[in-house]
Structures are given as structure tokens and as C-alpha cells.
Amino acid sequence: MSKPIRSTQWILAIVAIGLVGCAGPAPSAASGETTVPAEEKIVLAPSFTESELFLIHEGNSLKLGSSYDQAVKVFAPEANSFEFAELPKRFQQPYRGQGWETARESFGTIMYQQRIAVAMYQLDRATKVQLEDLVNLYTSTFSGVTPEKVEGKTVQNWFWKQGGQTLMISATQASTGTLHVAVALGLDDTMKEIGATETALADQVKSVDSRFGREVPK
Q1: pLDDT score for 188
Q2: Of 30, 76, 101, 167, whose CB is crowded by the most CB atoms within 10 A?
């Protein structure tokens, strides 16, 4: 039996984004004062915005600001799924995590005061056709928003940004040739907190490709 997607890593599973380093407080170069590393800073309240963006699943849609009950009507848990509630420690109450996972799929949320600030759906062992269908679906649905693409040797990321929100599709190729695909929608400031931005992922891709001698496609 396949192991489920690790729930504790669901929000960081795209390209090991978000929390990095555990070296502890570091002195400021300018003043010599001790500063708190980014991974230890408490995430502040998000600013909920109105946007035309939404997640799509089996013909239904989900917008940010919705409740978790509304979310699972769109991303209904499978019969053999497990629930989880983990979040990085920086996200303290009234933030909370809630989602479900199976051996191949997962759906997770970062909630703030009962409202969704980030939602992510993941599919393991996906095919290239499934990825193309997803990208085409969102491209045609949001035809008025031009996506930005960030890619490396084995990873591709698409970003749609509108109204203070970011929609992202990320696909990582496994050694078997199949793909791990994540589709996330989040408030811009919350996505920035977990490192799910064009700049952060571009830096990750360049670092990985440089380390393994890969040429980043132009």
C-alpha cells in the first residue's frame, strides 16, 4: 500500500518552499543587534481581498474567504482519506490548518478566523496530459490574466495574479517520469510568507539547477 502524502509537509511540498534554516538568531550587520530569523517570526493577520481568481475542481469553484465546510463541498474527501491539521509554527492562533490526504491526493488549507487564506490541492503520480489539461483550464478561465512561468530542468510553475491574490500551478517531475502537481490559491501576503512567489521559486530553481549542473531553460 502506498504511503499517504505527508500531511506535515503539504504546504511546503511544492519545491521545499517556505521555512528554511534553523541557525537561530543572527546579529544585524549594521547595529550588532540580535534579529529574529524569518522562520521564527509570527505571521500577522492577512488582508483579505476580492479577486476574480478561484480554484476549480470537478466543475465546481472555491474562492478565498470561504469556510472549510464550503471547501470540502468542492474538494470532497475520499472515503479512505485521513484528516490533518498541521501548520508551520509561525502560524499561530487564530490561524489553523485543516485538510485531508490519501496515498495519491491531498487538499489542505490555511485558515484565519474560519476563512480560507490559502488552499492547495495536490495530485501525485500525475501525467503530462493531466498537467496540460489543468494549465489549459485555468488559462482559458482567466483569459484576462496572463500567467508568469518559472521553470527549471524538472519543475514548472505558473502564476496568475489578480486583486491581491495568487493562483499557482506547480509540477515537479519524478525519476519515474510522472509528475507531482500542486494547485494553490492564496492571499498575496500569505503566499509570500510560505515562499510561494515567482521570485522565491525562481531562486529555488536556479539554486537547484546550478547545484546539479542543470541549465535553466530560457
Answers
A1: 92
A2: 167
Give the residue numbers spanning the domain of 57.
48-211
Per-residue cell: 125: 503520480
Point out which residues pair with 105 in neighbouring strands.
123
Tell me what the mean pLDDT of segment 159-182 comes to.
92
Residue 217 within any structural domain of the chain: no
Number of domains in the chain: 1
- Note the pLDDT tens digit of each residue in 116-153: 999 999 999 999 999 999 999 999 999 999 999 988 78
Measure the CA–CA gap between 67 and 117, rounded to whole angstroms.
10
Distance set, CA 123 to CA 5, 16, 31 (Å): 9, 16, 47
Cell numbers given for 31: 547595529
